[in-house]
Amino acid sequence: MAKTERKVSWDVVRVVAVLAVVVGHITRDGPVVHPELGPFAVHLPVLFGANTLLVVSAYFICVTVRRGRTARWLGHKLARVLPPYLVAAVVTYAVLRVAAPRFGWYTPDSTDLFANVLLIQTWSPEFHFIDGSYWTMSAQVLAFAVAALLAPRRWLRGPALMALLWALIVVPVVVQLLIRRQEDGLLRLVYDGMTLHRAAVFGVGVAVWLWTQDRLSGFHLTAYSVAMLIGMEVHTRSEDTASTAAFGIALLVLAAAAGGPDWNVGPLARPITWLGGISFGVYLVHQELGYVIARLLVDMGVGQVGRLLTCLIAAVVLGWLLTRVVERPAHAWLTGGRRAQPQGPSSGGSPVSPVAGPRPVSQPSTAAAGPVTVLAAEPASRNDA
């Protein structure tokens, strides 16, 4: 197999997306969920980062899933994402058990911890997310499983693949329109539990990959992306059109990263690559822990600029620790020290320049990362794109 070269452009996309998630949650969602946090020096009015990360994740699923045995590929993926997630969830739970009662916030209980550890938070309104950002995890793991299942199926090509891609847009929209007439019931349970409102986001990642392989025209990719954005407006009931538009712009940048030459960022390449390598860890620890830190800073009288900078630095430091102490050692131990498949952006590994592989392509079905909605106790985070 041909050797692949690292593309810094993917790290740029990842870093911008993760920073958008962090800044958006802290400055936009934080004061809504917890008004006592007050305004920040910067306010990001649109949310698009988690959607962007899930598109990139789906793209790299297509790049890597057909390399070797899919069972081994799936094992590597789960070994990469689950250990840091579980540690982050337990640590966040422990911190909230202490801090939330003091602040008058909702305090997660053992049932919430159980649901989050098992990634079943979306399957019942009785479960609360320990961290609103974790909605992407169940969608991501489901996407990995579906990709591993479909990758060996050689019938998944041509018209069958196109039908599946468009079904990822059409079917969830139809389900959404049906459940508006009846908010409770089986359709609602499946819609929420499987995060169907984000299925098309993964479809866009697959479509972008097909386009780079000359298996999808630019016109078809554009039409599919526009249809996905329209479907997103249906799912969110047009309550955050600005974020949908921002996500559309992010897709143009992502397509440039996928289909164009690597970006020359000069001396910024090294820090961007480093930040890209810890972006998954940053994503896992930034939101609820960031709210706790922001509240402590408010109590200490720290100003708007100081609060924002401290939250950003804390997210990076904690994300680095999670990556260095948990993610990488756990992955090496669980995989017997074998070198991992090149990882997609949501899994903390190094993005690579894709090399055209044998035909067919895998199709993940269902993120977090997609992202526009969280089905949890943090209402503002439900529109996280």
From TrEMBL:
Record-level Gene Ontology MF annotations: acyltransferase activity, transferring groups other than amino-acyl groups
Gene Ontology cellular-component annotations: membrane
GO BP terms, alphabetized: polysaccharide biosynthetic process
Biased composition (Low complexity): 339-362
Region (Disordered): 336-385
Record InterPro entries: Acyl_transf_3_dom, Acyltransferase_3
Keywords: Acyltransferase, Membrane, Transferase, Transmembrane, Transmembrane helix
Membrane spanning stretches: 12-28, 40-61, 82-100, 132-151, 158-179, 191-211, 218-236, 242-260, 272-293, 305-323
Keyword Acyltransferase applies: yes
Keyword Acyltransferase: yes
Domain Acyltransferase: 9-323
Superkingdom: Bacteria
UniProt xrefs under PANTHER family: ACETYLTRANSFERASE, BLR2367 PROTEIN
The protein, known as: Acyltransferase
The organism of origin for this protein: Actinokineospora fastidiosa
